[in-house]
Amino acid sequence: KLNKNKKMIKKLAASYDAFLASESMIKQIPRLLGPGLHKAGKFPTPIGHNDELSVRADEIRATIKFQLKKVLCLAVAIGNVSMTEDELVSNIMLAINFLVSLLKKNWQNVKSLFIKSTMGKPHRLL
């Protein structure tokens, strides 16, 4: 039913941050929903029959996505107010090192790095 209605699939994809589906259902999702979820970057994460849902949901909540479009600027959320300074530093280091490992020329492709809180001024790291 949703396969024919692209607006409904877009609305469904926009209303949730992530989707979970059993491994047996993953094969049927493209046929039922079409390419809408995949285009939105929210194709369901597979769950085995012995996986705990709460553990998988927490894992997805803790995951960030690096999406480079046509612009060369990238902004990523790496923490929140309830985190300690050490947790923030480890998240920053992990995110930066992972991002640099994805680039072809590693650090040669990075011109500058900034860290910024929601309402604060940006501070240059590199």
Layout of SSEs?
Layout: H1 6-15, E1 20-22, H2 23-26, H3 29-33, H4 36-39, E2 45-47, H5 53-61, H6 85-102, E3 114-115, E4 123-124
Describe this structure in words.
This protein has a two-stranded parallel ribbon. A two-stranded antiparallel sheet has the order 3-4. It has helices at 6-15, 23-26, 29-33, 36-39, 53-61, 85-102, and strands spanning 20-22, 45-47, 114-115, 123-124. By secondary structure, it is mainly alpha-helical. The relative contact order is 0.09. The mean pLDDT is 78. The longest helix is centred in the C-terminal third of the chain and has 18 residues, at 85-102.
* H/E element sequence: HEHHHEHHEE
Number of strands: 4
Compute the gyration radius: what is it?
18 Å
Please mark out the parts with pLDDT under 50 across 5 or more consecutive residues, or reply none: none
- Helical content, roughly? 25-40%
Brief characterization of the structure:
This protein is mainly alpha-helical and 126 residues long. It has 6 helices and 4 strands, in the order H-E-H-H-H-E-H-H-E-E. The protein is 40% helix and 8% strand.
List keywords for this structure.
mainly alpha, 126 residues, two-stranded antiparallel ribbon, 4 strands, globular
